[in-house]
Structure formats: C-alpha cells, structure tokens
Amino acid sequence: MNERTRYRALIVQRRLTHYRVAFFEALRKELSERDCELKLVYGQPAPSEGGKDDSGTLSWGEGLETRYFFGERICWQPFGHKLAEVDIAVLSSENKLIYNLIAQYLYKRQRLALWGHGGNLQADANSLRERYKRVATKRADWWFGYTNISVPLIEQSGFPRERITVLDNAIDTVELSNMVGGVKQEALRQLREELGLKSENVGIYIGSFYAEKRIQFMLDAVARIHHRMPDFEFLIVGSGSEKHLVDQFCAKHTWAKYLGVRKGQAKADVLALAKVMINPGVVGLNILDSFVAGVPMITTSCRGHGPEIAYLTNGENGLMTTTSLDDYVEAVSKLLADESAIELLTIGCKTSAQKYTVGNMARKFADGVLRCLELPTLRGR
Q: Are 56 and 16 a contacting pair, CB within 8 Å?
C-alpha cells in the first residue's frame, strides 16, 4: 500500500467482464489523481455464464473465492479480509450476493456503497424478493445508480437522494468512434457493391437474436416498410437463438442481408452504410453504437429495456413509438422520407456520444466516492 495515499477504496465484483476493463482503468487513474488508491477484487462467473466468453482481466486486480449454490441463486464470495485495508467498499447490488449482508451489517468502520439498478421496474413491488431488496438498499452510506431511471427505484426504499450518484453507465466507445471516423469512402463503395445495395435508404439491426429483442416484430416491420418504400434495404448483424427467423426471412427477401457477427472496423463500415437503426425490442448499452455512429435508433415502449433507455430522448437523438406494429412502421417510413429529420437526430446522436463515455462515468464515480468519504456514515441511523 502507498503510505502517502489519503484514501483507499475497494470495489468488489462478482465477476469481471471485458467491457468493464476500460472503466476500471479510467477510474483507477481518476481516483489516483485525487489521492485515493483503488483496489479491485473479482470472482468467477457462474457455470451457466461460461459460454458467454466475455470475461476480462486486470493485472492489478485480485481474484476472489467464488462458490454458487441452489442453482446459482446464491453466490458466496467472502471479502471481509479486504475490508480492513480500505476506507470505503463499493459492492454490486445483487440479491444472490449474500456476503454483502455481512459487510452491510457487521463492518461499521468503513464506508459502504452499493452499485446497481436499484430495483426492477418490471417486478412485483410486494414480492418477497423486492421487499428484501428494499431493506438491503438502505444498508449503505452511498448509492451508485446506472442511470436516472435508477433514482426512484433507490429512493422508494427510503434512501436519501443527496447520497445517490447517477453514473450514466457506459462502455468504452473510443475505438468504435475512431473506426467510424476512419471509414473510407472507397471502402464503403466496395462494400455496397459487395452487398448488392442499390439504395441509400438502408436500415440496420446490430445485436443478439432472442425473444426480448422482438426479432419477428422487426422482420414484420421491415417487410411493411419495404412495401411502402420499395428502395428500402435492410442489414442484419448478430447472432442468437432466433437466427433461424433471420435466415428464413433473408432467403425470401433479397433486399434483406444477413451479415453474421461483425466487429471492429467491419462493424463501423456497415454502420456507415445505414440511415437508421431498427431496434423495436429491448435497448441496453447498444444505444451507444447508435450515438457513436450517428445512426438514429427507432425503438418501442416495450417492457424490459435496460436502464440505458434513459439516454434516448424521443425526437432529439432517436425515436420511441408504442408497441403497435402500425405505429412503428409509420415512424420509420416517415423518418426515412425526411432527410432534415434524420440530420437533426444524427446531430443529437453525436452530441449524446460525447456525454455517455467511460471517462465521464469514471469522473462521476470518483466524485461519489470522495463525497461519501467526506460525510458521516448513514447505515444504522
């Protein structure tokens, strides 16, 4: 430990995903500049998560003993030995993390913060699970909520608003931004030729294929859009359990192209071909692709959106319709026919891309950590 460091902070993660690595690196630097040393400990994914292939590593992070019980509904990660070394610990807010309760109720010397959604918008507020979560929510000195949507969920437990930091959850978009900025027109011309695109009215979907993404709804919608606008073409990027629906659709409609999974520059190139992003199902961090690429997303008010749906301002950086197929088709068709409307939404996307960044998220997190350390403890009052 660095004896000259004024504060020491610990973050405990059930597991470390690759898309969080850039954030923790940025946060470590941000806290170091404020005389606070960051330690990170993280465990192993559950057996059912092994196939995701999304784990990350950090040379300065430390592993944590991890055991799962009762069909992965309970996770045991003893980190008490690390608490004695720090002034504040930030824990993930997950019901399954039962060691959190030991830290929340027994470790009084350290400040303790929770980090998460704050609740479940779709859950029954009177269910045992949600009642338990409200009790656990209050056993903290500070809260880090993903987005503005998290605030009322945290407050409904009785937690004070002045001790909640809204992080504006983000992933590293610098690489994609650089690639989008580096797209060459000649490369796009060749790609258009390779894909057989004949029009500028191109829509795109990038993401996974599963029920909550409303894949069949999306395919029905683009078929009707094409009927209204015969020059409309559609690119589909991704994979998942409902890939067969995409394969069958593209086999019947030559104007719809399935491109498989595309990453890096290949992803940036296909985004540059599109005018709109078709995403009628649940929205999460993929909205950042829309912002960075300047391709407005059109989604619906369906259930199950991630907290990042808070970033979409209807009519400014994207569109949200009702869950009606007629409404969705009408909105997309109308937008494609209005170049000035697309231009305004594109400007909104690029403005939002500057706001929702890992750097800004790290600064807000560091602000919350230091503010929590300056105030008296809240737990047990």
A: yes
